[in-house]
Design goal:
Layout lengths: L2 H10 L3 E10 L5 E12 L3 E3 L1 H11 L2 H19 L6 E5 L8 H15 L6 E6 L1 H4 L3 H12 L3 E7 L8 H4 L4 E4 L1 H4 L6 H16 L3 E4 L5 H9 L4 E2 L8 E2 H11 L1
Parallel strand pairs: 2-4, 4-5, 5-6, 6-7, 7-8, 8-9
Antiparallel strand pairs: 1-2, 1-9, 1-10, 2-3
Bound molecules: guanosine-5'-monophosphate (3 copies), manganese (II) ion (MN) and sodium ion.
Protein name: GGDEF-domain containing protein
Length: 253
């Protein structure tokens, strides 16, 4: 089976689906947003993990079509869900999508216009790998996103190899602590210290903090005590199909 061909088939035949994982306000326990995560189940290959097909798509160029799909679907849903709750929607972007910054910015603006989602409700998630690229246009593109009122988050924080100087250079709104640091909070004193330090640093830089991969109440309690604003993880909910997320959102409001 040629996985490239199957992925192209999936794009052309509506076989991709967006799932939504609730973003929880740790102080109130309520849903304040969602992260959109792509799912692909192929008739021949079965369930293909997103990190596998995203990597493939980055190599064969299909990432632009996947990215457009994720953005459009997520904004459409979130625009609809504004009637239930003023929730935010976080969409993952690959660094490859930023190679043509102008085109990407135009795409984002066009999708927001078309779907009617307020700009402040979109959260663009990028990883530290984007910060390694020294494209001169990146800086002005990210500044323009923020100028428009769009949120910008640094995802998987702490797992990349980039210097921390980018945190000053770009105006991020949120920092998402990678689940690798959250996982062992209950057992590991070093991880507790590290998470404490990351939260303190984020606060000093005026960034909101999201802790990812929360699976246990003890982890949530620890993070709440440290004034971590938001959490995501299986403790609250795994990523859900749109209709299931919508039910949860209605129950929560
Ligand atoms: O969803 P998990 O649900 O398995 O996702 C695994 C990885 O795939 C994560 O790093 C996530 O950021 C990435 N991913 C999931 N959906 C998307 C998407 O729509 N676009 C991009 N660029 N990455 C995604
Ligand atoms: O999260 P859950 O317990 O439902 O996952 C069960 C199995 O399904 C896991 O082996 C996982 O690899 C796979 N899986 C995880 N997320 C999804 C998804 O969004 N859709 C489908 N079809 N399978 C998934
Ligand atoms: O890299 P990014 O943060 O975009 O990807 C989020 C990934 O984390 C997805 O694969 C999602 O399914 C997964 N995830 C979300 N919550 C949990 C959790 O509590 N535990 C684990 N192990 N994975 C999680
Ligand atoms: Mn993410
Ligand atoms: Na992450």
């Amino acid at each position: 089976v040629n996985i490239n061909r199957r992925l192209r088939y999936a794009i052309d035949n509506g076989k991709l689906e967006m799932y939504y994982q609730p973003l929880i306000n740790l102080q109130t326990g309520k849903i304040c947003g969602a992260e959109a995560l792509m799912r692909w189940t192929d008739e021949e290959l079965g369930f293909v993990p997103p990190d596998e097909f995203i990597l493939l798509a980055e190599r064969n160029g299909l990432i632009h079509q996947l990215g457009d799909f994720a953005l459009t679907q997520a904004c459409q849903q979130a625009a609809k869900w504004q009637a239930i709750s003023p929730m935010q929607i976080a969409v993952n972007f690959s660094s490859v999508q930023f190679r043509d910054c102008h085109a990407l910015l135009a795409k984002i603006i066009a999708v927001l216009d078309k779907t009617g989602l307020p700009k402040s409700k979109l959260d663009v998630e990028v990883t530290e790998s984007l910060m390694i690229s020294q494209e001169s246009e990146l800086s002005s593109m990210l500044a323009e996103l923020r100028h428009l009122g769009i949120q910008l988050s640094i995802d998987d924080f702490g797992t990349g190899y980039s210097a921390l100087s980018y945190l000053q250079k770009y105006a991020f709104s949120k920092l998402k602590i990678d689940r690798a640091f959250v996982m062992n909070l209950s057992e590991n004193e070093a991880d507790r210290s590290l998470v404490k330090a990351i939260i303190a640093m984020a606060k000093a830089l005026n960034l909101k903090v999201v802790a990812e991969g929360i699976e246990e109440q003890a982890q949530a309690d620890f993070l709440k005590r440290l004034d971590c604003e938001y959490g995501q993880g299986y403790l609250f909910s795994k990523p859900l199909p749109a209709d299931e997320f919508e039910k949860l959102l209605i129950e929560d409001n």
